[in-house]
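Researcher: I'm preparing a figure for a lab meeting and need a structural model of a single chain. I don't have an experimental structure, so a prediction will have to do for now. The sequence is pasted below. Please return the structure as tokens so I can convert it later.
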Amino acid sequence: MSNTPVTSAQPSPKIDTRLWSTKARNLSPYVPGEQPKHDHLCKLNTNENPYPPSPKVGQAVEAILTNGADALRLYPDPESDGLREALANLHHEHGIDASNVFVGNGSDEVLALVFACFFMKERPLLAPDISYSFYPVYAETFGVHMVKIPLSDDFSIDSDAYRQPCCGIIIANPNAPTGLLLGLDAIRKLASEHPNAVVVIDEAYIDFATDSDESKQGNSPSAVALVKEFDNLVVTQTFSKSRSLAGLRVGMAFADASLIEALTRMKNSFNSYPLDRLAQAGAMASVQDEAYFAKVCQQVITLRETLASELAKLGFEVLPSQANFVFAKVPTTLLDGDAEAVALALREQGIIVRHFAKPRIDEYLRISVGTSEQLKRLIEALKVLV
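Model: Understood. Here is the structure written out token by token.
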């Protein structure tokens, strides 16, 4: 195990913006989690799955490549019909068919198209004040007026606070970086109270959720179950987290066919071939290996509970996460409760976690669920700081 400090990238050269458009000059881009290179890095900052994808993914991709250059010479299926059909089949019990499914180059692209299709209106978009930090970037990019609705003191989402005029609502569920889950009853309430606004539920982490309003009946906490009930509901998901395919960039949306048609029109006016042949093949192979998918999700959930328990023993206040990360308040026994200092101290040991220097959450760390070995290394490093 190396204790070599992780160094940052070299500073960027001075940029001349004189040829830029006003829009490009004024944008404040999203800053993704750091992707440093280090031989012994314990990387717990970007919520990547600690386990590899299904072996069938590699087999599907290899099968295409072994067909020779001809396999990549032609354009891929522009609508990813096979993948959309496979995704629809996953939710057939809810009446979902391929007309209710849209796919794109990662859920980030899907969300960008959602903003362009449904939120460029006079009325404001409503979103939690603490949530996925890409939402304000999309709003700025597309000229959308976004009103931030404060989370409750316990960081939960109060659906009653959204009872105001709007063009749409967007909520990450489970929320990020808190990891808290909004139940299906609350989502149903939002959709029914705003019939003329599009309600978007961003379910990047839903496959790690084990609790919901209807969980006692054995139902999934995913809002895909409500798509046929509400024609104003859009549910986005991704292959990046639970299916371990962040490198392939595959995202999807489930919605009424009329909303899917709007997304398709916008996509075909921007990027008509979003998913390449390898991404489509790999994603379809993942969907077809549900046994492996379920096993990995359960392993991550088990590790999440172990991580939360170990952090609590050290005095952290850990929110009840339903994602593949935990959000924990640093105790005063660790560097006087200075979360940023703790993150930097861990970094010196080659352990990367995420700290957000923002109001209300600057005393917290977001820690991705890693392998059992990585989590053991993290806990041992924290014990040294006590």
